[in-house]
Request: fold
Amino acid sequence: MIAKKTNTKTTVKKTSTIAKKTSATAKKVTATAKKTATGDKKTIATAKKVTTAAKKTIAAKTTELSVTGNKKIGTLQREFNKRFPYLRLGIFYSYAREQVAKGESIQQIDESKTLASVRRVDSGGEISISGNKKIKSLEKEFDTVFGLYCQICYTAADGHRYYTSGINDQKTLSAFNEECRLEGCKKDIYR
Reply:
């Protein structure tokens, strides 16, 4: 056998040319990958914005509660507590206001009754309860629309039950619910 003579310079040039082409191709692939990754980052950022907006919309809708005369008191109280788990909605006949002023104890209206069956005869309408509504506004609306005495209540960590008054009546339902959570108040007590 005869040994074939090879030119080392030619082989090195060919290898170098192939390496350069491979390097150029690798750079193109890297650039494409970077563009794709940037596009993916933009897509991910957009998806996050859409998801955040959707969560806010859902949260706004889930904290909005429509109250009409045909709603049972117990159902309303459970729905209210579901949206504001550290608060209770106390609903009483209008004369209970005077009893409270005299220091007498009062009883909530039977939860199986509808608002229409216990409201003042000349009253009626609809109330919308949302997280950004002030406590005093909601209590006043119950008096104006249904002729009923309403109190936003909570149960402290030690089990004592209270209703809001004074400065707390100036707070929104969401803010006061959060405050009760931070203070360790009892959760999920609707009545």
Summary: Residues 1-12 have pLDDT under 50 and may be disordered. The two ends are 104 Å apart (CA to CA). The chain is about 50% helix and 15% strand. The longest strand covers residues 148-155.
